[in-house]
Amino acid sequence: xxxxxxxxxxxxxxxxxxxxxxxxxxxxxxxxxxxxxxxxxxxxxxxxxxxxxxxxxxxxxxxxxxxxxxxxxxxxxxxxxxxxxxxxxxxxxxxxxxxxxxxxxxxxxxxxxxxxxxxxxxxxxxxxxxxxxxxxxxxxxxxxxxxxxxxxxxxxxxxxxxxxxxxxxxxxxxxxxxxxxxxxxxxxxxxxxxxxxxxxxxxxxxxxxxxxxxxxxxxxxxxxxxxxxxxxxxxxxxxxxxxxxxxxxxxxxxxxxxxxxxxxxxxxxxxxxxxxxxxxxxxxxxxxxxxxxxxxxxxxxxxxxxxxxxxxxxxxxxxxxxxxxxxxxxxxxxxxxxxxxxxxxxxxxxxxxxxxxxxxxxxxxxxxxxxxxxxxxxxxxxxxxxxxxxxxxxxxxxxxxxxxxxxxxxxxxxxxxxxxxxxxxxxxxxxxxxxxxxxxxxxxxxxxxxxxxxxxxxxxxxxxxxxxxxxxxxxxxxxxxxxxxxxxxxxxxxxxxxxxxxxxxxxxxxxxxxxxxxxxxxxxxxxxxxxxxxxxxxxxxxxxxxxxxxxxxxxxxxxxxxxxxxxxxxxxxxxxxxxxxxxxxxxxxxxxxxxxxxxxxxxxxxxxxxxxxxxxxxxxxxxxxxxxxxxxxxxxxxxxxxxxxxxxxxxxxxxxxxxxxxxxxxxxxxxxxxxxxxxxxxxxxxxxxxxxxxxxxxxxxxxxxxxxxxxxxxxxxxxxxxxxxxxxxxxxxxxxxxxxxxxxxxxxxxxxxxxxxxxxxxxxxxxxxxxxxxxxxxxxxxxxxxxxxxxxxxxxxxxxxxxxxxxxxxxxxxxxxxxxxxxxxxxxxxxxxxxxxxxxxxxxxxxxxxxxxxxxxxxxxxxxxxxxxx
Length: 870
Known about the structure:
β12, α6 (235-250) and β13 form a beta-alpha-beta unit. This protein folds into 4 domains: 5-204 and 358-410 and 417-451, Response regulator (Rossmann fold, 3-Layer(aba) Sandwich), CATH 3.40.50.2300; 208-344 and 480-523, 3-Layer(aba) Sandwich (Rossmann fold); 540-590, no CATH class; 602-736 and 761-864, Rhodopsin 7-helix transmembrane proteins (Rhopdopsin 7-helix transmembrane proteins, Up-down Bundle), CATH 1.20.1070. The strands form 8 sheets. It has an 8-stranded mixed sheet with strand order 13-12-14-15-16-17-18-19, sandwiched between helices. The protein has a 6-stranded mixed sheet with strand order 4-8-5-9-10-11, with helices on both faces. The N and C termini lie far apart (142 Å). It is of the alpha/beta class. The longest helix has 34 residues, at 665-698. It contains 27 helices and 28 strands. 43% of the residues lie in helices and 16% in strands.
């Protein structure tokens, strides 16, 4: 079943491979590598697995990495190209292929009466080797000749492989010409999505577009905006870095630096390592994304620069995530990293099948022997070969029994891409079965094998059994991604713990990640920070610094009336008209209601106590005057007007309560009207008293015409007439545009001013203006008669009272107009209390002084003597 051939090709043969026309030398197994006096000797080992069958499936697998591994001095050999570093996990993929084919051949329901055969090669991760192997499979046994096959009736139905994008693209370009179906189990290159160039290509993994969209979303999920990128310097690396940069930019993530790794001479590696270390050390990025082609050289580089990776978090996709070989050999560099990898597909248990693969059971399997010699330095009977492997692996050969099982390798125990290989084989087998059972599709029928488009049709149309995953329009098997956390322990053990899943639904990605289950570098449980600038806390916004990355910015506090309720907000948002930012400016809160409240303002208590106290004092004085109404001092200048004046002043004090508390329509309607009418009544009474004093002075002259007004109700009529005019003004105001309650949302920041809208400003100022006119007339008349004898001496107290009244209201006007909200109301209340108190004090306190402390002056005879009682 298995056959291994080692072919030696010189430089001319290598050129033929590049021309896709290779004439191999006669197969031979050499005891040692012959020294040749050439600059380059190509000693490529062709590991071939063949089984005959009715239908042949070709397979290209990467088990070794093709690289320069041996250098010699002198004139014999300068360098030798060998398939080196076989990875046990990759050998497992090949065994899974064999298991799947055997299982299909035993299944009576799938491809009945048909035997599947195969021809497999190790591409050694080299595209030249891969293309040569494809041509060998297409040509059949014997000489490799393009466009010619020696297989007679046994045709190649399709190909499985390869794992890497570099080799897979080269294979796909060739197979697209022949329209052969190809299913890759690991290639992710975005170029392969082009159905015009690669119409027969399929893969059981997601492409780079989906991978790097997911990785960038994962980086965004953890809040990282400042990352470094390390990539291979090849076509695959360039393509993947472009895709990664595109998706990172869309999500507002910046690339701090980008390091591209390519194979260099050993003499130059130290300089390269120092340069890379310096780049990473200077950057503040704490997260590094790996992309491109995995190679042992890149793995070695990561080990070489591990001192600067000690505190860095690595993030990578399936290309690296499925190589648990990395964690096995490079624990320090890869501990605590995050890996995006495809979700597992169900596969049967193959443990018993794998346990059979020992060197003792399969001595003809040269690839298996190569794995044991390279990874465990097992010695063989050939001394020269042992010496060569010892030099390449830098180890001392040791005796092995040959019964060691390949399952003992840690990397072999990993699942890797085994489910993808298994399903790739079954997908192709199901498509062949569907095509075979379709009309005109026989096993040996010409149309079955000549029309490869029919097989491609069934590949596109099929839905894999026992699962709901299908191939999309690009030939990708659509499956969710899972996120693994790589952990290593001091005892040398290592695990990959799945901490979440990322489901792609149309253009949306749904995350279900258990952040608390992640173990970061040095055993930390907190998410590391990777940002160019400090986070802008809620209440501020980002302002990008000019000339550098958009991820480097300054934080500016939100303007008045604006908030930002998320971290690193680019814009602040205005609150609604009835809301205002809180102190931290991270959320909008209802605006404070602004009015003279009984519960929240100490000034209201002062006004309430003052109003009540002055009202009681006024009531007390009114009671005194009523009880002494028959005395000379009370009778002087019309005691009835004095009673009305005291009542008006008392009610003026009490009307202050209409200005306190939350304004409502009723209080707004009454406050200015009551205040205006009551003050007008008070001033009208004073005006009547002043007019009577003036008439009494004029009537003292003999024959004066003013004498006929003595003893009349002139003062009362003046008071009633003047007050009536104010009532008419108020009624007109209420009829045309009455006051009402309103809420002012914009005059004061953070407050809703509940106030009274005066309705008609003309009505409001007419009330004040008329009242001011009466006060001015009273003041002028009182000022004119202020020097009269004692009997008429009330005029000078009226003068003082009007002087206080006018001074208060004149000073109140600018203060009233320059304030807003409750302070405007407070100014008006203060003016009411002060002016009313001035009238009370200037007019009535001197009389109370005479009544209580100078009663001898409170007689008519005393007043007529014109004595100055002061």
